[in-house]
């Protein structure tokens, strides 16, 4: 008798938990999940900035390289840093684009999966 009661309670608890999780999952995905994914995206951009040292290059654009304070050294340093900054901005933009595409893919994936399930089981034409 006690075993049956514990088993029944366990089955009810698991069923309720499973139903709640399935119903709560889309809400979490588009609230807390989006926030977490967006924070990850921002962290990735911060990591890109640190790895490319973009802000350091831009802050020191007018500082002569190798301590050469002659006008030729300043001119060469300025143009070399311009080339470096342009290259690093291009790489950063590619990094930004890739991160944004991954974030958008993450956000759209559940909708696409539900659409494909409805379409492939021929439920969608009946709904329209």
List the helices and strands and how they pair.
Layout: H1 2-29, H2 32-52, H3 54-59, H4 71-120, H5 124-127
Helix pairs in contact: 2-4
Oligomer: single chain
In whole angstroms, the N-to-C terminal distance is 51 Å
Number of helices: 5
| Low-confidence parts | none
The total strand number stands at 0
Sheet-strand content, in percent, reads under 5%
Query: What is the residue-averaged pLDDT?
Result: 89
Q: In sequence order, what are the helices and strands, one letter per element? A: HHHHH
Domain unit count: 2
Shape: elongated
- Give the structural class: mainly alpha
Task: Estimate percent helicity.
Answer: over 70%
Major beta sheet summary: none
Global Rg? 27 Å
What would you note in describing this structure?
With 128 residues, the protein is mainly alpha-helical. It has two domains: 1-29; 31-127. Helix content is 85%, strand content 0%. It has five helices and no strands. The protein has helices at residues 2-29, 32-52, 54-59, 71-120, 124-127. The longest helix is centred in the last third of the chain and has 50 residues, at 71-120. The chain starts with a helix and ends with a helix. The relative contact order is 0.08.
In summary, what is this structure?
The chain is mainly α and 128 residues long.
List keywords for this structure.
128 residues; mainly alpha; 2 domains; 5 helices
């Amino acid at each position: 008798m006690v075993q049956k009661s514990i088993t029944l309670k366990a089955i009810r608890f698991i069923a309720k938990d499973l139903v709640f999780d399935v119903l709560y999952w889309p809400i979490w995905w588009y609230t807390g999940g989006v926030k977490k994914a967006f924070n990850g995206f921002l962290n990735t951009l911060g990591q890109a900035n640190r790895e490319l040292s973009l802000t350091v290059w831009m802050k020191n654009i007018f500082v002569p390289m190798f301590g050469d304070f002659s006008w030729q050294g300043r001119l060469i340093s300025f143009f070399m840093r311009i080339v470096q900054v342009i290259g690093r901005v291009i790489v950063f933009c590619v990094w930004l684009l890739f991160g944004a595409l991954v974030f958008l893919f993450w956000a759209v994936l559940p909708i696409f999966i539900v659409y494909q399930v409805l379409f492939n089981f021929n439920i969608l034409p009946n709904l329209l």
